[in-house]
Amino acid sequence: MLSNEKVVVADPSVIAGLDNYRNLEAAQQPTWPDLQKLEEVKAILATYPPLVFAGEVDILKNRLAQAASGEAFLLQGGDCAETFADATADRIRNRVKTMLQMAVVLTYGASMPVVKMGRMAGQFAKPRSSDTETREGLELPAYRGDAVNGYDFTLESRTADPTRLLQAYNTSASTLNLIRAFTMGGFADLRSVHEWNKGFTDNPANSRYENMAREIDKAIKFMAACGANFNELRTTEFYTSHEGLLFDYERPMTRIDSRTGTPYDTSAHFIWIGERTRKLDGAHMDFLSRVRNPLGVKLGPNTSVDDVLALIEKLDPEREPGRLTLISRMGAGKIREALPKLVKAVKDAGAQPLWVTDPMHGNGITTANGYKSRRFDDVMDEVRGFFEVHRDLGTFPGGVHIELTGDDVAECLGGSEHIDEATLESRYESLCDPRLNHSQSLELAFLVAEELAAK
Fold it and tell me: Does the pLDDT at position 2 exceed 60?
């Protein structure tokens, strides 16, 4: 901070308000056996530097406001649950490359700016349908993500350990550092669109991307010959997001901005509230309503009109552009019936949130050989249904929220590689939910680009 900058001190009532969640029901929180150690860890986290900065958060809010008004499109993607072991340079690079490729497909195909946001650098906690898991008569705590406990089915691994919160911070910091190096250091240069496809297996989606990359390359060479300045093509904005689940992590990472005296959750640029924790009078809604970050809320097929109007009043009472993103996760067989009434009610109420589809979480299945999976055709059909609903109502379908990886895994059935149940046994790596692999992610990006171009 420069010496002549004015520092704004937060009103004590703001700090007190941030801690009001302690008086409310807090769903999906771990049972920490060592509470003294937990308090020590929280105190340490509160002294650590912010992972993101208020100014970056404000820029993202402006970008999301553009998407909500139909002038941009949000691409949000990444792991179902990040793991410490997978936070390697190669795997982070592959996720970033996949996101960059998808964004190029969308930008080129739909002639529209794309806001790039990763489920990265913080997605280390997961809600669970049960507090425990039983295998062969042995009952242990459920795996709640690497920020809480380990995946191995032993008592030692499954016991919640607060020091993992520190590891979550450190892993997020190193991940974010590498993302910034990639996106600001020339790796994301649009003149390198061919380079992003190296190392990926050959399939129809990659071949289609290569054809498009040649067209982009030809256009750039033409503009260069005309004397165009391409300095702005060297870098790109890339934002981080995760589900704001663990108060013992999010609260210590919430800081008061010295410019405005208002609180920002500095663990990520964008925080979302899940289907299991969006209870209107619950702790998550109360806490996150008080931070200045743009917020997302997941909406399942049973969401009522009253639900969605009430949460808009709770999280965005001032109708601030870019503040609120509504993420529908209905399922391919339900979206065309469940979503229209919500979109129409919000439109009639005069609100303009950003509407995004999550075509992953409503389409889960368990295969005959015991794997959690999703059918790629169902994912694609939900995306089509999302666009159809908004097209019919005259509203803008502003983004997609995808669980994906840049690696050559086999977790979702179908796609151009024709992944079947037998293939899952050889290339399934997710510890939680199945993700689209690189080629499936590209296929989806081409579909979305076509839908956007036809809107």
Answer: no
The Cβ-side half-sphere exposure at 272, using a 13 Å CA radius, reads 28
pLDDT value at position 4? 56
Strands (E), 96-168: 114-119, 132-135, 138-141
Residue 100 burial class via C-beta count within 10 angstroms: exposed 0-12, middle 13-18, buried 19 and up: buried
**Residue 61 contacts residue 323 (beta carbons within 8 Å):** yes
CA distance 240 to 82: 13
CA angle 311–312–318, rounded 5-degree value: 135
Interatomic CA distance for residues 169 and 45, integer angstroms: 8
Mean pLDDT value across residues 230-235: 76
Residue 200 has pLDDT above 70, yes or no: no
- Tell me what the pLDDT averaged over the chain comes to: 93
Tell me the Cα Rg of the chain: 22
d(CA 398, CA 326): 10
Report angle CA 61, 65, 265 to the nearest 5 degrees: 20
Neighbours of 26 (CB within 10 A): 17
Query: Quick check: pTM over 0.90?
Result: yes
Q: What is the DSSP track for 253-299?
A: TEEE-TTTS-EEETT-SEEEE-TTT--TTSHHHHHHTTS-S-EEEEE
What are the structure tokens assigned to 142, written together? Answer: 């459920």
**pLDDT exceeds cutoff 80 at 194:** no
- Cβ(351)–Cβ(322) under 8 Å? no
pLDDT at 455 over 70: no
